Amino acid sequence: MSISIREYLSQRDITLTELAKRLNISTPYLSQIMNNIRPPSLYVALALEKETEGKIKASDLRPEITGNDILGINVGLLKRTVRAKSLSLPPEAP
Q1: Alpha-carbon span 16 to 34, nearest angstrom
Q2: Which residues of the chain have pLDDT under 50?
């Protein structure tokens, strides 16, 4: 099990806004994820795992991410896509 977004922010002494900027998503969207109001997209869940160096696990944020696939999609391929894009994620809709 991974740590929560709130714990990560506290341990790293960074703000929610700073993490949202690193992920290229809005602060309100990240706040909704942190407070379990809205789940992250699969891409954002994987990006959070990458940005936090695995301290926050995508599979803890999105339960359908298990083993080596997500609804039949290869997780390794998705993670390589996230790495290749260097977290240059499109902004999420509010």
Answers
A1: 9
A2: 87-94
